[in-house]
Amino acid sequence: MSFKPLHDRVLVRRVEQDERTAGGIIIPDTAKEKPMEGEVLSVGSGHKSEDGKVTPLDVQVGDRVLFGKWSGTEVKIDGEELIIMKESDILGIIEVSVASKKAA
Predict the structure, then answer these.
(1) What is the C-alpha to C-alpha distance for residues 31 and 29, in angstroms, rounded to an integer?
(2) What is the rounded distance in angstroms from the CA atom of residue 39 to the CA atom of residue 1?
(3) pTM of the prediction?
(4) Which residue, 27, 44, 72, 81, could crosslink 5 as a Cys pair with Cβ 3.0–4.6 Å?
(5) What pLDDT band is residue 83 in, cutting at 50, 70 and 90?
(6) 68: closest CA among 3, 12, 4?
(7) How many other C-beta atoms can be found within 10 angstroms of the C-beta atom of residue 86?
(8) Residue ranges per domain, the chain?
(9) So what's the pLDDT on residue 23?
(10) How far is CA 8 from the centre of its chain?
(11) Largest Cα–Cα distance in the chain?
(12) pLDDT band at 5 (very low <50, low <70, confident <90, very high)
């Protein structure tokens, strides 16, 4: 199925965090919080102002973003749990530096 959000909305897939802490302790599923980091899967056309002009969104498909804990609406599309949220719910875009990519 294909899904395109309307206006200034964004479709995001949560990115799962590591199951271990930096000290090596394994975190059980019951103690985990939902991740607040995700990957943008689809974006709407942009925010429409009162005079009818459309301002494009700052996020693009493929961006890794950080969002608020209670942001958006959870939906299930093709059996996968995704989140639809307004662009204003996104706190920022995570930019991975070249050095950290090589280390991983």
Answers:
(1) 5
(2) 18
(3) 0.73
(4) 44
(5) very high
(6) 12
(7) 17
(8) 9-103
(9) 66
(10) 14
(11) 55
(12) confident
Give kind and range of the element (H or E) at residue 54.
Answer: strand 54-55
Determine the Cα–Cα distance for residues 39 and 8; give it in Å rounded to an integer. Answer: 16
Q: Which two tokens stand for residue 30?
A: 């019951």
**Phi-psi category of 101—alpha, beta or left, where left has phi over 0 and alpha has psi -120 to 50?**
alpha
* In CATH, 9-103 is 3.30.300.30: no
Q: Map tokens 């090589």 to a residue.
A: 102
Residue 96 three-state SS: coil
Q: Look at the chain and count its residues.
A: 104
pLDDT in tens, 35-77: 688 999 999 988 888 888 888 888 999 999 999 888 889 999 8
